[in-house]
Amino acid sequence: MTKIAVAVLPSFAVRGITFDNRQQVIVRMKENQLLELVPEPENRYDPNAITILFAGEKIGYVPRQYSAYLKFLLQQGAELYISCVRIVEKLTPEGKIRIPIVLIYQLIEEPEICQRDLEGGGR
């Protein structure tokens, strides 16, 4: 069987990207690079918080509305992958910031389809 990538959420903008010099890390990112998801249960604002890392450095967080679902998937042993699909630049009063847009996906086994099913004779 082959594996196919299935998105587990719509793409989203990484949150918290303007804190702790994260823009200095984000500026080194390129589109299509893999990132890392790390649960942060000690987070005082959200016990479901999930950190996003690039090259071992924090760039921000998964949006709160998705974090509990992703935490559940990770606790169930799902192998989740995250990649940067786009980087958007935005002007702010403080200057230009870069906003990574990411997609989280899972590799799943593709079901085998018999040739006769493809030809319409499988029923």
Model description:
- The chain has 123 residues and is of the alpha+beta class.
- It has a single domain, classed as Alpha-Beta Plaits (2-Layer Sandwich).
- The chain has 3 helices and 7 strands; from the N terminus they run ββαβββαββα.
Number of structurally distinct domains = 1
Mean pLDDT: 86
Q: How much strand?
A: 35-45%
SS summary, helix count? 3
As residue ranges, the low-confidence spans are none
- Annotated CATH architecture: 2-Layer Sandwich
Share of helical residues = 10-25%
Number of strands: 7
The CATH class assignment is: Alpha Beta
Looking at CATH, which topology would you report? Alpha-Beta Plaits
- Main sheet, how many strands, which sense, barrel? 7 strands, antiparallel
For the record, give the distance between the C-alpha atoms at the N and C termini, rounded to a whole number: 22 Å
* Structural class determined from secondary elements: alpha+beta
Approximate shape: globular
H-E string: EEHEEEHEEH
Chain oligomer state: single chain
Rg over C-alpha atoms, rounded to the nearest angstrom: 18 Å
Task: Compose a concise summary of this entry.
The protein is an alpha+beta fold and about 120 residues long.
Strand and helix layout:
Layout: E1 3-7, E2 12-13, H1 22-26, E3 34-39, E4 50-54, E5 57-61, H2 64-75, E6 80-92, E7 95-109, H3 115-118
Antiparallel strand pairs: 1-7, 2-7, 3-4, 3-6, 4-5, 6-7
